[in-house]
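Progress report, Aim 2. The chain analyzed during this reporting quarter is listed below.
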Amino acid sequence: MAYEQWTDDEALDAAVASSAPYVTGIPGTELSTPVRYRVHRSHVSVIGQGEVGCVVTPVFDVDGPERQRHFIDEVFAMTKHVPPMPGAIAAHFHTSTDGTRVLNYAEWSDEQAHINLVSADDPRGIRRRITGEIPGVRPCGYRRWRLHAAFTVAGSGDVR
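Predicted structure tokens for the chain:
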């Protein structure tokens, strides 16, 4: 998976259309049609300081932009009083610009921390409700990823 953040759609369109050496995807990986998202809401864990060792990307099909916002707001409301999860660093909920998907880009300290969460008891039924009980929202599953590389743009536009 290649996750890129751009200042705006025009900057991305210009990069793709230019003669500069912009390559969509990473050599050796499967090409796929990019989906454009906007960050809608994020949560950084109070104990989530540290290096990201695993990224988890749950995706949900939704019935339009109103369902996107409603779903994310419901997730935040359901988890408001849940104690911090060991290994959870941050969750960044994105809405697709076409109104059909929600992507959570969740940062974890390592794979085992996420495995521990999904295999733990769910006494409040939060996981069950998130993954199947909100009308107009259908879970598509998730994948765990190891961070291969991260690049940032310095103030001068140089990539680090």
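The longest strand covers residues 88-96. Strands lie at 37-44, 54-56, 59-62, 88-96, 101-108, 137-141, 144-145. These observations will guide the mutagenesis work planned for the next reporting period.
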